[in-house]
């Protein structure tokens, strides 16, 4: 089981259909977002317990829970990149990340990718921070995009290229300190598969 906290993250997990064993909500806080979580959880047959802020703080540890915390089954994603691509009904739009080790940065990447319409974010299991409660909170419900560790990164990129996916890469900073992004992204064919590499 995995503890998920924060209003957006808890609601996204409930909407995703993940098994939820228990929901804790702050007892003296009454607002629309918390009430929506409570209503959805109850409709799903989830036990909802209203507890004091101090009790939520104890359960959540040193994380900022926003008055909502749930205990969910571990998310199950595709077993491999091929399954992920086969499940899509349109050309894939993927973001591949390598070396993102800060949970706040990974959460921001997931949130931005979700807003941009990215189907999945692929990151290696090593040289990355993984999906943590902090990542889920910063991602504001977009952590479901991750297909982390589905395949080794080099193997996955080779598989995408072999399948006709065009790649465009960006780097964090050039040697002169300026930001650069390959102009190839703008030049991709309109109907082709696209992949942004960050």
Number of domains: 2
Architecture per CATH nomenclature, i.e. the level-2 architecture of the largest domain: 3-Layer(aba) Sandwich
Number of strands: 9
Low-confidence stretches: 181-186
CATH topology of the largest domain: Alpha/beta knot
* Overall CATH class of the largest domain: Alpha Beta
- Morphology call: elongated
* Main sheet summary: 5 strands, mixed
Strand ordering within the main sheet: 6-5-9-7-8
Instruction: Provide mean pLDDT, rounded.
Output: 77
Straight-line distance between termini: 31 Å
Q: Give the ordered list of helices and strands.
A: EHEHEHEHEHEHHEEE
Rg estimate, integer Å: 19 Å
The assigned structural class equals alpha/beta
If you had to describe this structure to a student in words, what would you say it looks like?
With 198 residues, the chain is of the alpha/beta class. It has 2 domains: 2-72, Ribosomal protein L30/S12 (60s Ribosomal Protein L30, Chain: A), CATH 3.30.1330.30; 81-197, Alpha/beta knot (3-Layer(aba) Sandwich). 33% of the residues lie in helices and 20% in strands. The protein is built from 7 helices and 9 strands; from the N terminus they run βαβαβαβαβαβααβββ. It has helices at 7-15, 32-43, 53-60, 81-86, 103-116, 133-139, 153-162, and strands spanning 2-5, 20-26, 47-51, 68-72, 93-96, 120-122, 166-171, 180-181, 194-197. The strands form 2 sheets. A 5-stranded mixed sheet has the order 6-5-9-7-8. It has a 4-stranded mixed sheet with strand order 1-4-2-3. Helix 2 (32-43) links the parallel strand 2 (20-26) and strand 3. Helix 1 (7-15) runs parallel beside helix 2 (32-43). The radius of gyration is 19 Å and the shape is elongated. Mean pLDDT is 77; it is low at 181-186.
